User: Fold this.
Amino acid sequence: MFAALILYSCTGPNQWIEDLWKHYSNHGPTSATPVMNPASGIYRSAGLSVTIEGSDPGSTIYYTVNGSAPTPTSSSGPSPFTLNLPDLSTSHVQAIAESFGHAASGVASATYCVDPVLSICAGGGASLASEGLGSSALSLGSPAGIFLAPSGDLYVADHDNAVVIRISNSTVHLVAGVISTPGSSPDGTPAVAALLNGPSGVAVNAAGDVYISESNADLVRVVRHSSGRIYTIAGGGTDTLANGVPALTAS
Assistant:
């Protein structure tokens, strides 16, 4: 057995140690998902330093900056790790943490737009949101929430105008709501004809589904990319909010 171990160790530098690490890592508890600081956003600075930190002692951070899934063969550094992003860049950072005796963590992700030159990307105009409108001609009511998608499209939840819009290549596209008409519409309504009541937050998943929080209605709704229709996924019920309460019955 000793001879076999020596022969095996000659297959590559520390190969048996690496395989032993992988064996115990794959069969141990899961590493804690790393935390990125600062959060996603548009930063008006000369470069940006992003700290990626795992809470498990001695963990290693594996990361990508192009939106691809990180693996143990990705770029890496010890936790906490500082990633320096250049000016005039948009980086879709994803990271995992891995420590001895632990399986790889879940994926942490964030999108950073670093632009030290202040510019207006939407608003300041006199026209209400409409399909195909130039973003510089747009008059925003109260942009309460924004989301910068990996594609570079900017989603805006306009609270006072009761709509969610997408800005792509400086052009406005309506995602949900009827301009300046707050209200409520049933599940399954086409999103561009559905009434929203105080849209204040917006997020988009990898499938293109758009999640909208309605602060005046205490609801979370989703516009399915596959159908373009809107559905309630949380809120609207009478149950006191607590762990384990079904999302659709929570108040």
Q: What stands out?
A: The helical segments are 2-9, 15-26.
